[in-house]
């Protein structure tokens, strides 16, 4: 299977840099799967699970929290607000964040609903990637 260069950059570090045969992630328009020689495009990333398919057949799964992607025929660049592997996630903190967001959404008065929904989505993605639903 053809490969392409994948680079995932966070504000303070390069999260991943290497070759991949496919990468899957969530955009504001839905889920996408990118292979080598994909049509060029730019996407706005939504919080979700990111799966990197490596040349050896293995997969690297991480939580991707917002950003942008640039897809070219031979490379994909992801500029992420944050990205983390499951073993890097503080499960207790993610559960607490999910509960806080749920409580805010139940109040409905005087809250930014979109912000609370985004916080809940991020927490649920983190729990999913960490293996704790």
Percentage of residues in strands:
over 45%
Indicate how many domains the architecture comprises: 2
Strand elements, count = 8
Number of helices: 2
Q: What is the CATH class designation of the largest domain?
A: Mainly Beta
CATH fold-level name of the largest domain: ATP Synthase, domain 1
CATH H level, superfamily name of the largest domain: F0F1 ATP synthase delta/epsilon subunit, N-terminal
What is the CA-based Rg, rounded?
Answer: 16 Å
Using the 3D structure, state the CATH architecture of the largest domain.
Answer: Sandwich
Topology pattern, helix = H, strand = E: EEEEEEEEHH
- Taking the alpha carbons of the first and last residues, their distance comes to 33 Å
What level of helicity do the residues show? 25-40%
- The low-confidence parts are none
Task: Give the structural class.
Answer: alpha+beta
Average pLDDT value? 94
Q: Could you describe the largest sheet, including whether it forms a barrel?
A: 8 strands, mixed
Backbone shape: elongated
GO cellular component, one term: proton-transporting ATP synthase complex
Keywords: ATP synthesis, Cell membrane, CF(1), Hydrogen ion transport, Hydrolase, Ion transport, Membrane, Transport
Protein name: ATP synthase epsilon chain
Family: Belongs to the ATPase epsilon chain family.
């Amino acid at each position: 299977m053809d490969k392409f260069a994948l680079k995932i950059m966070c504000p303070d570090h390069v999260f991943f840099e290497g070759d991949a045969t496919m990468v899957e992630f969530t955009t504001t328009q839905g889920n996408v799967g990118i292979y080598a020689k994909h049509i060029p495009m730019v996407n706005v990333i939504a919080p979700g699970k990111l799966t990197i398919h490596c040349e050896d057949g293995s997969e690297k799964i991480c939580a991707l929290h917002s950003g942008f992607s640039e897809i070219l025929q031979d490379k994909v660049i992801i500029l992420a607000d944050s990205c983390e592997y499951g073993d890097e996630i503080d499960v207790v903190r993610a559960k607490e964040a999910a509960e806080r967001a749920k409580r805010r959404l139940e109040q409905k008065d005087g809250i930014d609903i979109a912000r609370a929904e985004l916080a809940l989505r991020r927490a649920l993605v983190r729990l999913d990637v960490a293996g704790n639903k």
